[in-house]
Amino acid sequence: YDFLITNPPYSGNHKERILEFCCNSGKPWAMLLPNYVATKQYYQAAIAQHKLQPFYFVPHERYKFYHPEGTGYDTSPFEGFWFLWFGEHTNAIYSWALQHLSAASYKALVR
């Protein structure tokens, strides 16, 4: 693959495993994850270990996650946003996004 786009399961250790896989691959990625992942030690350690500087795309509205009837919650207890890393092109893509994406298309675009 050239680029990984994923919305992994949020249960168990799936978040940690996909993050480890992505960081170890050295290939660009976009992961839709709960906002709280950015504050977790495993995330901070993985980003530091691989010297990555991703950025984050926060949509205006919360994503609605649908689940089989009788499982999960009616509404998500967290916001999901995109964790983005494009390899050597990350800074250029982040700068391009700041200049060309309409503020109406996102709530925040941050590093």
Q: Could you describe the 3D structure shown?
A:
It is a single chain. This protein is α+β, with helices and mostly antiparallel strands and 111 residues long. Helix 1 (14-25) runs parallel beside helix 2 (41-49). A five-stranded mixed sheet has the order 1-2-4-3-5, with helices on one face. Strand 1, helix 1 (14-25) and strand 2 form a beta-alpha-beta unit. The longest helix is centred in the N-terminal third of the chain and has 12 residues, at 14-25. It is built from three helices and five strands. The protein has one domain (4-110). It comes from Eutreptiella gymnastica. GO terms for molecular function: methyltransferase activity; nucleic acid binding. This is Site-specific DNA-methyltransferase (adenine-specific).
Tell me about the biggest sheet? Answer: 5 strands, mixed
Query: From the alpha-carbon coordinates, what is the Rg to the nearest angstrom?
Result: 15 Å
The shape is globular
**N-end to C-end Cα span:** 26 Å
Strand content: 15-25%
Q: Could you state the order of secondary-structure elements as H and E?
A: EHEHEEHE
Number of domains: 1
Derived from helix and strand composition plus strand pairing, the structural class reads alpha+beta
**Total beta strand runs:** 5
**How many separate helices?**
3
- In helices, the fraction of residues equals 25-40%
Strand order within the widest beta sheet: 1-2-4-3-5
Low-pLDDT regions: none
Mean pLDDT: 90
